[in-house]
Amino acid sequence: MKVRRGLAVKIGSISWMPRFLPQIVKCDSVIQSVSGHRLSLLDIGDLPNITIRVPGRKSGAIRTTQLLAVPDGSDWLIAGSYFGGPTMPAWVFNVRAADEIEIIVHGEVSVAVATELFDDERDAAWQTLRSVWPNFDLYEQRTDRRIPVFRLRPR
């Protein structure tokens, strides 16, 4: 494992880290803004990531969220973990309601269809996600909710 990714995994496993998620998100937003959206905390941590753009399910306003994402062939896998917090990330509800979403990978914008995975498909995808971010196991232990996993398939 690369040094920066190993450090990111260690930091991400700290039990009190979820309390600071709002500050982490704000810090990441500043880094992205200052770098002209060329750099994020996930990039600094040497973690694969994408940005999704999805219409809000109620407002219809486009919501932009950067997520740790693991490539799986030409698809991407994402998980609504929110550090194992008790509440579901808002983007999960929007992705569930959308017919298609935009994904941005290294500045390239494309359209994708998001499919929520269940049963054996979810379990296999979970193992792929864990291979990049082992802390998903901790997040699963921290919460009573089932962490949703999505496959994003380019249209």
TrEMBL record:
Which InterPro entries would you find in this protein's record?
A: F420H2_quin_Rdtase (IPR004378), Split_barrel_FMN-bd (IPR012349)
Q: Name one Pfam family in it.
A: F420H2_quin_red
What catalytic activity is recorded? oxidized coenzyme F420-(gamma-L-Glu)(n) + a quinol + H(+) = reduced coenzyme F420-(gamma-L-Glu)(n) + a quinone
Q: Gene3D superfamilies attached here?
A: Electron Transport, Fmn-binding Protein, Chain A (2.30.110.10)
Taxonomy, superkingdom: Bacteria
The text of the family note is: Belongs to the F420H(2)-dependent quinone reductase family.
Q: Which NCBIfam families match?
A: hi_GC_TIGR00026
The protein in question is named Nitroreductase
Q: Which organism is it from?
A: Gordonia terrae NBRC 100016
Its taxonomic placement starts with: Bacteria, Bacillati, Actinomycetota, Actinomycetes, Mycobacteriales
